[in-house]
Amino acid sequence: MMGPAHSLSGAAAWLGLGAAVAGTDYEMPWPVLVVGALVCAGAALAPDLDHKSATISRSFGPISRVLCGIIDGLSHAVYKATRGKGDPRRNGGHRTLTHTALWAVLIGAGTSALAMTGDRWAVLGILFVHMVLAVEGLLWRAARTSSDVLVWLLGATSAWMLAGILDEPGHGSDWLFTGPGNEYLWLGVPIVLGALVHDIGDALTVSGCPIFWPLPIARKRWYPVGPPKGMRFRAGSRVEVKVLMPVFMVVAGACGVGALGLW
Question: CA-to-CA distance for 135 and 119, rounded, in angstroms?
């Protein structure tokens, strides 16, 4: 799928989780619901770090373009080193390493560790990166016609304000993990969820997605998981733009209302 659909699906997934845990011991305070939805929307773009033409490659100027090139090379090298007898030869790393469940879990765990062990600037950095990505994905029309600097300023301002709100007592800096010193440990959860939702979205397209690597399936280590071919669509097609994106928006709105207990 394309960037906007990925971001919408990420936000909808987090709001859906919020609705699912409403009324339980794990109910999300409203700041966690909002911040998590934005972080998840941004994280849903991150697996495309292996694609030099993806939305994320343009998000941070030369830094993100260079990083995408490095990740593409790394992903291609891992693919060549681990491919099975049934896996085809390929020239790039797109939809390989960063499109696996293992990658999603590792990135989420790394984010949680950084948020918990780092200082306030580490949390601000995590929020800034994902706020910028959320703007690029959810407000993509405005972002593409605007200056990169304005998008970065919006991301930085949002990160600063949201971190300040979360730090208020009862606003959720310690949501899910309530032990002393576990503040912001939960930030890895929307990272994992966003990456997995991205992978599931790509699995619905023609090329499928190797979510279960490195588990061997049908003589392949990089088996492209997906529904029957007749049910798949091309990225950027009318199915994605005219059907799935409106569905994601409706689901996100309904889940947000449910998570806040407004019905």
Answer: 25
